[in-house]
Design goal:
The protein starts with a helix and ends in an 8-residue tail after the last strand. The strands form 2 sheets. Strands 6-5-4-3-2-1-14 form a 7-stranded mixed sheet. It has a 7-stranded mixed sheet with strand order 7-8-9-10-11-12-13. It has a single domain, classed as 4-Layer Sandwich (Metallo-beta-lactamase, Chain A). It is α/β, with parallel strands linked by helices and about 300 residues long. It is built from 9 helices and 14 strands. It is about 20% helix and about 25% strand. Strand 9 and strand 10 form a beta hairpin.
Length: about 300
């Protein structure tokens, strides 16, 4: 396994990415409403052609579309990832406003719904920032030249790549509302650098198998944590359940929800084995996160 110093030659070091992240940045952030649009692994669940107990289950919690998350911050809406199921997720949850997209990484199951952002420009033509790791930006430019190239296709979504190298703030596309502070959290998905994100006292960490020490420090005082937990058995690029529980305990959020589960995970059975403060998420789960109280001297 490579170390942070070995990765620093080609990738941003975690210390640099999280430099300047303080809990005080989030004191003015309004209460959040977090909706998990999708909670499944890259194949989705049910898996095509599979007849296992989870894929044929009549429990709606066992149906998992690809991972995505929508955060309402006051009137503003911030989206994490646009997977292949984004359109149906947005219709199901009545997503009617997106001010920005924060991409975790460039894998198919997290980006390929990008074109379904187009309807959000029918009434509002203002540019939508898409925040991402520099490596993700390079892949997105290559794969979506008709959107991000020098001669975009007429009618393409008016989105702009914003490379993240440190904490940033998301402006409103609709009015003069105060920008929302967002902290990128550098993670590793196998050997691939990816971003998790913190808004207020909420953090979203999907597709991760290692968290650098500096990134742990940037997750201090989290209230609600969404965390990758693929399955009970180990995997080279995702946390297993046992690994995810250990990480959740170290971060110490009041409530943790696991996402990115495979069809090896029956919801009711697996959830019953977890502590009350660490639970499996499911598609459509909505959680309120209170505003941060100012720190006392």
């Amino acid at each position: 396994m490579s170390t942070d110093s070995e990765n620093a030659g080609t990738h941003l070091a975690a210390e640099r990415v999280v430099a300047g992240t303080t809990t005080d940045r989030h004191v003015a952030t309004p209460p959040l409403t977090v909706t998990l649009l999708g909670t499944g692994t890259s194949t989705g669940v049910p898996v095509l052609g599979c007849q296992c107990e989870v894929c044929t289950s009549d429990d709606p919690h066992d149906t998992r579309t690809r991972c995505s998350c929508y955060v309402r911050v006051g009137e503003m809406g911030i989206l994490f990832d646009t997977g292949p199921d984004f359109r149906q997720q947005a219709l199901r949850e009545n997503v009617d406003r997106i001010d920005a997209v924060c991409y975790t990484h460039h894998h198919f199951d997290h980006v390929v719904g990008l074109d379904d952002l187009r309807p959000f420009f029918f009434e509002n033509k203002r540019e939508m920032p898409c925040y991402m790791h520099p490596d993700t930006a390079s892949v997105m430019r290559d794969n979506y030249d008709y959107i991000f190239g020098t001669d975009p296709y007429p009618g393409a979504a008016n989105v702009a790549i914003e490379k993240i190298t440190g904490p940033f703030s998301v402006p409103s596309r609709y009015d003069d509302s105060a920008p929302v502070p967002v902290d990128p959290i550098l993670l590793y998905h196998g050997q691939t650098p990816v971003y998790g994100y913190r808004i207020g006292d909420f953090a979203y960490l999907t597709d991760v198998s290692r968290i650098p020490e500096a990134s742990y420090e940037a997750l201090h005082d989290i209230d609600v944590l969404v965390l990758d937990a693929l399955r009970p058995d180990p995997h080279p690029t995702h946390f297993s359940f046992d690994e995810a529980v250990t990480v959740a305990r170290r971060i110490g959020a009041r409530q943790t929800y696991f996402v990115h589960m495979t069809h090896n995970v029956p919801h009711a059975e697996a959830n019953a084995r977890l502590p009350d403060d660490i639970q499996l998420a499911y598609d459509g789960l909505t959680v309120d996160v209170p505003a941060r109280e100012p720190s006392t001297p």
